[in-house]
Amino acid sequence: RETFDRAAAGLEALGFPNTGRVDRGFMDSLYFRDPNGLLLELATYTFEPPSGVTRRAVFELAHQLCVERGDYAIGQDHLMDAIAQLKAAAVV
C-alpha cells in the first residue's frame, strides 16, 4: 500500500498524466502510459488478511459471499464479512 501511495503521489507531483486511484473493490488501481505509450497499471489490495489466514482464503470466501448475494463483483462488504467470518472461525 505504501509503495502504491508513494507512486501515485510522485506521478501527481511530476504532473505525469494518470487515472488517479481507481476503486476495483478488492484492490485499487492506477493507470498511466510509459514513454513508449504502453499502458501500465499499479495495483494494491485494499485489505490485509487476519494473522494465519491467506489472501486466497479471504478471496475464496468473499467470492462465495458475492455469488450467494447475487452481486456482480467482490466489494469491500464481501471482504470485510469474509475477514470477520475467518477471524471468528480461528477463535473457535
Describe, in plain words, how this protein is organized in 3D:
With 92 residues, the protein is an alpha+beta fold. Helix content is 47%, strand content 17%. The chain has three helices and three strands, in the order αβββαα. The relative contact order is 0.15.
Helix/strand layout:
Elements lengths: L1 H13 L7 E2 L3 E7 L5 E7 L9 H14 L7 H16 L1
Antiparallel strand pairs: 1-2, 2-3
Helix pairs in contact: 2-3
List the strand order in the largest sheet.
1-2-3
Write down the Rg.
16 Å
Order of helices and strands: HEEEHH
Residues in β-strands, percent: 15-25%
State the main characteristics.
alpha+beta, three-stranded antiparallel sheet, 3 helices, 3 strands
Provide a compact summary of the structure:
The mean pLDDT is 92.
